[in-house]
Amino acid sequence: MNRSILFVTGLSGAGKSEVMKALEDLNFFCVDNLPLELLHDLTQLTNTSRTTEQGLAVSLDVRGDQFFDKFLSTIGELENAKTPNTILFLDCSDRVLVRRYSETRRRHPIHESDSLLECISKERILLSEIRASANYVLDTSSMKTQELRNRIGKLILNRDVSSEIILNVMSFGYKNGIPLDADYMFDVRFLDNPYYKTELRSQTGLDDAVSDYVFSQPEAVETVDSISNLMKHWIPLHSLTGKTSLTITIGCTGGQHRSVAITERLSKILSRKFNAVSTIHRDIR
User: Fold this and answer.
1) Cα–Cα distance between 205 and 191 in angstroms, integer?
2) What are the structural domains, with CATH classification, of the chain?
3) Which of 87, 178, 208, 232 is the most exposed place for a label (fewest CB within 10 A)?
């Protein structure tokens, strides 16, 4: 019997490398950017006892020669040969893709234009048929490594995660725009701003002096207590519906002081009840 093959593909910069790392941790035999001509040879690994218990994952993207012409036809050949396969397509928002390319300073594989957005747009069009054929489409725009691993486990291995939920507690600054992936959003701009204290301006909510200043205000303590009590009640209800992640956002003006201090304390409180809590400071310098 042929081994099931997991194809990991999608937009360049959407996180294929991170997914492949997660699959390796989950005991998959992983091959990155395999030429499609070699795929049938790779399936013969099922005949070796050393790898029969491993899943087989193949990462493919636009770097492959004639990728778009060959991919779907190769899938068809595998299905005709009764070789089971699954396609996992990784998607991501344009805004996040642009940021990732800006941070890594890498050139987009489709570099027929000086505009990165035009390259991304063209790749979306070229991949549209493959995306439509995918068994799973996973948007990685706001995912961290831990959440991505758990999502892969649930999608591909049918791991029971019904009682688990990934919590992202994020600070942000309203002047930089509200988070698009927020499930809950709380505004703490009513608190006195440490920015107007000269000795605190250059620090952040991660510094003890700023945190002490913020929590010297009774309203800050009440805010954390109110939000944590609300979340302890609502998060389990979200989990029961099958939701695998929840993003709680705390906003102040610049995302440097008040929201950071509140987010840090809220994350610590929620971590006592929930196993997977990630703390994110979107706008901190």
Assistant:
1) 13
2) 5-157 (3.40.50.300), 166-281 (no CATH)
3) 208
User: What's the number of CA atoms in the CB half-sphere (13 Å) around residue 275?
Assistant: 9
Q: What are phi and psi of 90, to 5 degrees?
A: -100, 120
Contact 202, 186 (CB under 8 A): no
Nearest Cα neighbor of 32 from 2, 54, 7 is 7
Q: Could you read off the pLDDT of 153-199 as tens digits, one per residue?
A: 788 877 654 456 789 999 999 999 999 989 999 999 999 999 999 99
